[in-house]
């Protein structure tokens, strides 16, 4: 039903400077896997085959990562390292990869609009790979199930956030219609805490209808002079059933240094190889 996922990856990643001066934020590793690979694996595990990545200047490493690395594979084959060889090969087999450039980062809405011709006339998913979500069932899979069950036009991942954090997010106003499911009646981008209609924030996973593209073409730049995806979704509210879904799982905002470190520690502690010695190190250093 949902066959395509869009990965906006053209932002400057200023909160991670200087690391992101010449390297894409989306390639920062969670233990040993780049953030964007976690996103692609989630899409794949949710039944998606077509991965559409929005890139820009300095983002070539992303294309190389999902491409076949002939030299590396030949070297690993020669050494007889089958495990690493199949690990490296499996990355380029994760789906069909398509790239489109956003020559200036004019906002998330603008990045999504760049994929209009590749997506065509079908519903699609958007994954922001700096929102890392650790869950039993992939979050996108959970959302596709809600999309089907409620015959929705769009589904947005939402999460309760502390009141003082609402100015960082798009915030929904909604009516609860099922377990974790809200019918959205309005939404506002980065409100002041006292003006926010709720504490339910939109997180980086979306299922959107193709009508989002004309809506994006029609809106004007919003908060921060950027074309805001939230503004275009808001314009859809009168014609589409837009749902918010409180997903099951733990989310890390890996677009910030603190969230990125927390995600790394949590994923590393679960790693069978490095988890036990890391736990021992933290214990010895009286960190935990
Ligand atoms: P962010 O809001 O995290 O922006 O974008 P950013 O530029 O990556 O990081 P900061 O705020 O400067 O630190 C969320 C996602 O949307 C993409 C980013 O690459 C990131 O994956 N994005 C953002 C675009 O593709 N184009 C844009 O114009 C803006």
Got a strand count? 13
> Structural class of the helix and strand makeup?
alpha/beta
Architecture (CATH level 2) name: Alpha-Beta Complex
| CATH class label | Alpha Beta
What sort of overall outline do the alpha carbons produce when their principal axes are compared? globular
- How many angstroms separate the termini? 45 Å
Strand content: 25-35%
Description of the molecule:
The protein has 288 residues and is an alpha/beta fold. The chain has one domain (4-255): Spore Coat Polysaccharide Biosynthesis Protein SpsA, Chain A, CATH 3.90.550. It contains eleven helices and 13 strands. It has a nine-stranded mixed beta sheet. A two-stranded antiparallel ribbon has the order 2-3. It has a two-stranded antiparallel sheet with strand order 7-13. Helix 3 runs antiparallel to helix 4. The longest helix is centred in the C-terminal third of the chain and has 14 residues, at 257-270. It is globular. The N and C termini lie far apart (45 Å). Residues 8-15, 25-26, 54, 102, 105-108, 110-111, 128-130, 255 line the site of uridine 5'-triphosphate.
Question: What are the main properties of this structure?
Answer:
alpha/beta, Spore Coat Polysaccharide Biosynthesis Protein SpsA, Chain A, single chain, two-stranded antiparallel ribbon, 288 residues, 25% strand, globular, binds uridine 5'-triphosphate
Summarize the helices and strands and which ones pair or pack.
Layout (H helix, E strand, L loop, with lengths): L3 E5 L20 E2 L2 E2 H11 L4 E6 L4 H7 L3 H10 L2 H11 L3 E6 L6 H6 L2 H4 L4 E4 L3 E4 L4 H11 L4 E7 L9 E9 L2 E9 L10 E9 L3 H7 L10 H8 L5 E5 L3 E4 L3 H14 L4 H10 L4
Parallel strand pairs: 1-4, 1-6, 4-5, 8-12
Antiparallel strand pairs: 2-3, 6-11, 7-13, 8-11, 9-10, 10-12
């Amino acid at each position: 039903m949902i066959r395509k996922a869009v990965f906006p990856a053209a932002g400057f990643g200023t909160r991670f400077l200087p690391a992101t001066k010449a390297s894409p934020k989306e390639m920062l590793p969670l233990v040993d896997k780049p953030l964007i690979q976690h996103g692609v694996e989630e899409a794949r595990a949710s039944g998606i085959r077509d991965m559409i990545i929005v890139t820009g200047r300095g983002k070539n490493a992303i294309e190389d990562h999902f491409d076949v690395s002939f030299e590396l594979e030949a070297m690993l084959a020669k050494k007889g390292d089958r495990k690493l060889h199949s690990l490296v090969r499996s990355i380029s087999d994760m789906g069909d990869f398509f790239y489109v450039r956003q020559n200036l980062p004019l906002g998330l809405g603008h990045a999504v609009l760049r994929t209009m011709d590749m997506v065509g006339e079908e519903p699609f998913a958007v994954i922001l790979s700096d929102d890392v979500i650790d869950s039993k069932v992939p979050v996108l899979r959970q959302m596709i199930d809600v999309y089907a069950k409620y015959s929705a036009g769009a589904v947005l991942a939402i999460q309760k956030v502390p009141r003082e954090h609402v100015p960082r997010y798009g915030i929904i106003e909604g009516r609860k219609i099922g377990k974790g499911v809200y019918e959205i009646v309005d939404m506002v981008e980065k409100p002041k805490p006292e003006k926010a209609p709720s504490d339910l924030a939109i997180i980086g996973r979306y299922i959107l209808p193709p009508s989002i593209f004309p809506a994006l073409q029609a809106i004007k730049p919003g908060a921060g002079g950027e074309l805001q995806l939230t503004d275009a979704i808001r314009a859809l509210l009168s014609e589409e059933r837009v749902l918010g879904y409180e997903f099951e799982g733990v989310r890390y905002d890996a677009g910030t240094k603190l969230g990125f470190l927390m995600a790394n520690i949590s994923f590393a502690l679960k790693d069978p190889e490095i988890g036990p010695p890391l736990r021992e190190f933290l214990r010895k250093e009286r960190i935990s």
